[in-house]
Design the sequence.
């Protein structure tokens, strides 16, 4: 039996578990894996040891992280130690970065949000702010910037910003775009889950920055669950 295990950082938000369960079901339905599970690096169980123990002896581990960084390194290290101690036949894949489907999902979420809000304007008449988490790891910034560069030319103007740990911040990103009087400002949270950052923190920063704005502003859904995301995970697993 072959297993695939996703390792997520961890969250107490119910929506995160719901999305991971949906994603695991989707992956299993379009792949040949007998078992598809998820686990968390920290915060709440199931932790990595429990996740590995719930799988078969042939296991492919995919870190469900958008970027490299300290947490990714810790997830990989813990996985190796546990899998080797149990004498498993295991592979550890790369994280999700630098896959063409990521930009496709960004554009898909933008089009969905425009349709939901009745916006008929072409993207070339809209401005975009892409919001990432932020990291002190330069490789994480480069991976995020790669997505920004892939999508920016679809829009009249585009900027990126970070929630924390890096600059520019959300207020700066919004202010730069508002200076050019956008017809529509589309804000995309480039996050995997509807966790606390997407549910609360980002909206607090956005609301503080746009309280005096005259432009129409819409906020898209995060990356979330999709066949495109499942395909990214399966591609990473095949490459491991």
Sequence:
């Amino acid at each position: 039996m072959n297993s695939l295990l996703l390792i997520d950082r961890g969250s107490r938000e119910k929506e995160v578990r719901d999305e991971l369960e949906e994603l695991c079901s989707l992956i299993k339905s379009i792949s040949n894996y007998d078992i598809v599970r998820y686990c968390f690096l920290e915060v709440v169980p199931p932790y990595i040891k429990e996740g590995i123990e719930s799988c078969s002896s042939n296991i492919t581990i995919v870190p469900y992280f958008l970027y490299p960084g300290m947490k990714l390194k810790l997830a990989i290290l813990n996985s190796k130690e546990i899998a080797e101690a149990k004498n498993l036949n295991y592979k550890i894949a790369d994280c999700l970065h630098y896959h063409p489907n990521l930009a496709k999902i960004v554009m898909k979420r933008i089009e969905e949000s425009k349709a939901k809000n009745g916006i008929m304007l072409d993207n070339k008449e809209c401005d975009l702010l892409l919001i990432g988490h932020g990291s002190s790891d330069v490789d994480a910034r480069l991976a995020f910037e790669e997505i920004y560069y892939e999508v920016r030319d679809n829009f009249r103007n585009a900027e990126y910003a970070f929630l924390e740990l890096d600059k520019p911040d959300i207020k700066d990103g919004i202010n730069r775009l508002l200076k050019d009087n956008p017809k529509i400002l589309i804000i995309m949270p480039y996050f995997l889950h509807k966790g606390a950052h997407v549910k609360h923190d980002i909206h607090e920063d956005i609301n503080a920055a746009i309280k005096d704005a005259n432009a129409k502003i819409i906020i898209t859904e995060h990356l979330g669950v999709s066949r495109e995301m499942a395909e990214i995970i399966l591609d990473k697993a095949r490459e491991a």
About this structure: The beta strands are 2-8, 35-40, 58-63, 89-92, 126-132, 157-162, 184-189, 216-219. The mean pLDDT is 95.
